[in-house]
Amino acid sequence: MAREDGPVTDFNPITRDRRMSGRRRWEMGGAIAQVFLITGYVAVATADLSGLTKAWSLTLLAAFSLFYIVVPGRCLFSSLPVKIAVVGTLIVLPIPQLTVMGSGAATLWIYAALVGGFLLPDWAGMGLGVLLAGGMLVVDLAFGDELGWELALTTVALTAFMTGFVGNIRLNRELQQTREALAVAAVAAERERIGRDLHDILGHSLTAIAVKAGLARRLVGRDDAAATTEIGEVERLAREALADVRATASGFREVSLATELVVAGSVLRAAGVTARLPADVDRAVHEIDPSMRVLFGYVVREAVTNVVRHANARTCTITVGAGAVEIVDDGSGDPAPPGNGLSGLAERVRAAGGALAAGPRPGGGFAVRVMVPLPARAVR
Description:
alpha+beta; single chain; Heat Shock Protein 90; 14 helices; five-stranded mixed beta sheet
């Protein structure tokens, strides 16, 4: 999976708070991991060494611990040179300890391997883990100790775990950024639509009101009855304009099938899934009864969300008809985990008198299909 190497500047308070929470989690985990270094501190403190040697050795151990706890969690989204410097520091700090702790000091490289899996690209993190595991074996040979194969293999396994764990973090972050970007784009599009609708609605109404009001002013004192009639027209036009504005605002809060189809295409493409949508979205939506468009919009939103999050699909096909909507993907075919929203969607469909069918397809993939009986006027 591709990783970002450039620095990230984020002024979104929600994202910033999320990153701060991530740092605190790393610091907490790093502090807990220091439990495994207690024996190292005890070994140095109780060794038959000069006071000066013990002092600098314990100081280096403390610096290693503090650096591991505080620094890596703050550098996940830093530039690649900064990440390399952090990992390099954790590799270099234990080297002087070899003269005090012997080959046991090489076990500190496990921490460096974990940070490498945390900060570096996948291939680099795993490569570093393998190299450090090999370095531990070389140190054992140099000191004439038994080869610590178990420790070396544990280092590689922990590096692989950290690499996969951070991969999931980055994927979730990319999905969150994509969702936020799409939300911003959708809001901007809706603002443009509302601005255009208000211009169309109020432009004509206010012009008519201004003309009628001017006429009423000129009629006052000359033909009061006519002036009263014109003022009544001004009041009627104002009330109609207010009703139109309220309807426009109400439409802004509603789920729109057309918007959901457009957003679904953007989300799927952002997730690397080929989206197959109706060739003419507006025409396809127009053929659907207005009473079903909001429901079908919810169906498309929920199904596409599950495709992106769970299906591991290459293509997703969305088909809409007069009384049905279907979302089909060619992914793993595994159902989404409990709590994914399909149960709530099924209740919404049942409330509309329809039926929802969702499950793996015989040929592979997953399908969500909703059918709603057509209203009587649509059938006629």
